[in-house]
Amino acid sequence: MLSNLRLLDDDMMTLVFDKNIEATELLLNIILQRTDLKVLEVVAQREYKNTMAGDRSIIIDIYAKDNTGKIYDVEIQRADRGAGSQRARFHSSMIDSKMLKEKQNFKDIHDSYVIFITENDVIGAGLSLYHIDRVIKETGADFGDGAHIVYVNGSYKNDNDPVGKLMHDFRCTSSVDMFYPLLAKQVKYFKETEGGREIMCKAFEDLAEKRVLEEKREAAMRMIAGG
């Protein structure tokens, strides 16, 4: 049922944030605890293809780029198993692999952020945010490679905290219960107006067809790789 969809459902989330710079700026500034982040580009369901036949590709829920060149991959994960550390590592490596052109210097690579918004507290420490960065074990100093992974606890509840308010809105099924007017307006449009519902239904049909085709392509690639 469309009425039961929330921003924690990736299909709904991609509709609300696709090409929506203002909403994406709100999301990233809250999660990264900033106020100055400016988004230049936002694309939902962006595919990163691997060049080798049979190798795994990824489809990013929300791809964003800011005015300094930093890249953001925002993923919704309802199931705990879909937010494992190895998956975060793979997403980070795929983004990095596409960032430099031939003959560019490695120092030109921009920072990247892989952000998992999870329905449950997959880390299990009861916090709202978990930031993962490489450090030098012997000194505790930041390695400074520019690769960042962030887990956002979708079950976190604190209406006095911006992250708590954001996750409250992600769990809401009705726009009238949401804290952030910008997000509420988008949810209301897609769920409560005729034009919005038509767009949402068509988008869901297209996504379903795309996923079936992708599954068939991956199966074919596995068959080719297996001879």
Secondary-structure topology with pairs:
Blueprint: H1 10-17, H2 21-31, E1 39-48, E2 58-66, E3 71-77, H3 85-97, E4 112-118, E5 129-132, E6 147-153, H4 162-171, H5 181-192, H6 194-225
Parallel strand pairs: 3-4, 4-6
Antiparallel strand pairs: 1-2, 2-3, 5-6
Helix pairs in contact: 5-6
Portion in beta strands? 15-25%
User: What's the helical proportion of residues?
Assistant: 25-40%
Shape: globular
The quaternary organization reads as single chain
Largest sheet: 6 strands, mixed
Q: What's the SSE pattern?
A: HHEEEHEEEHHH
Spatial arrangement of strands, main beta sheet: 1-2-3-4-6-5
Mean pLDDT: 88
Sheet/helix structural class: alpha/beta
The count of DSSP E runs of length 2 or more, i.e. the number of strands, is: 6
Uncertain stretches: none
Rg (CA only): 18 Å
Distance between the termini: 43 Å
Query: How many domains make up the coordinates?
Result: 1
Architecture overview:
- 38% of the residues lie in helices and 19% in strands.
- By secondary structure, the protein is α/β, with parallel strands linked by helices.
- It has one domain (2-225).
- Strands 1-2-3-4-6-5 form a 6-stranded mixed beta sheet, sandwiched between helices.
- α3 links the parallel β3 (71-77) and β4 (112-118).
- α5 packs across α6 (194-225).
- The termini are far apart.
- The mean pLDDT is 88.
List keywords for this structure.
227 residues, alpha/beta, six-stranded mixed beta sheet
